[in-house]
Amino acid sequence: MEDEKKSRLIDEMAISAAGNEEVLEQFILQEMPYIRACAGKTLSRHINNESEEELLALEAFVEAVDSYSFDKGSFLSFAKLVIRRRLIDGLRKQKTMENIIPMDPADITINKDKNDTASLLESENSEEKIADEIEMLSDSLKKYAVAFSDLAACSPKAKKTKDACKTAVIYITENDLVFYEMANSGQLPLKTIEKNTGVPRKILERHRKYIIAVTEILKGKYPCLTPYVISMKRR
Residue 62 CB: number of other CB atoms within 10 A? Predict the structure, then answer.
């Protein structure tokens, strides 16, 4: 009876964490041992802290939170299935990308179209083109003191935060003066964005690197990387 009550509390916390970043962060911290255990069992080995496998498992856990409802049964059981699926998919992708870039471009996506991605990877010389564009993007990000490898850690996890970042990116890309101010100063114009979009300054500061990177992709010449963030465009 006590275990059932505890399980139900976890289910309720999962519901509360969807769209609430503070609750989500607390929930992740609470369940991190479970997340690592699920990943370790799937891969049949120990999972190191801050490893790529741990990151994939964490992303899967957040995905489970976003898509969970009480009619899906126990949240932890549901999350375990999602983590397993994400890790297996991640291993398949890694075999394709491991000799090209140090990080899967999926780490900087908002809503990646799987069909577009499959076509992209199958097209002639696409892998080399992606690698070239990532190198170009990395150079562009230097003026902001942003490294490509930083993007996974600063990407938004909760849907509410993703939507807020999307609002900020759309505003910058549709207002050339704001973009030029950002590009020339090497800083995100926090005050201007907050005033004109209503996105809280706390979110802008926390996900500054992510917003800058996605904006640079959409405003630059990155035909291979653009499909990964195409949903950021309003039209």
Answer: 22
Helix, strand, coil shares, percent, the chain, to 5: 75, 0, 25
The DSSP code sequence of 46-103 is ---TT-HHHHHHHHHHHHHHHH--GGG--HHHHHHHHHHHHHHHHHHHHHHHTTT-SS
What are the tens digits of pLDDT across the range 37-63? 998 888 888 887 777 888 889 989 999
Round to whole Å and give the CA distance between 64 and 85.
Answer: 11
Contact between 68 and 18 (Cβ < 8 Å):
yes
According to DSSP, residue 229 is labeled G
SS (H, E, C) 115-163: HHHHHHHHCCCHHHHHHHHHHHHHHHHHHHCCCHHHHHHHCCCCHHHHH
Domains and their CATH numbers in the chain? 2-98 (1.10.1740), 114-232 (no CATH)
Question: Which pLDDT tens digit goes with each residue over 128-181?
Answer: 677 778 888 888 899 999 988 788 778 888 888 989 999 999 999 999 899 999
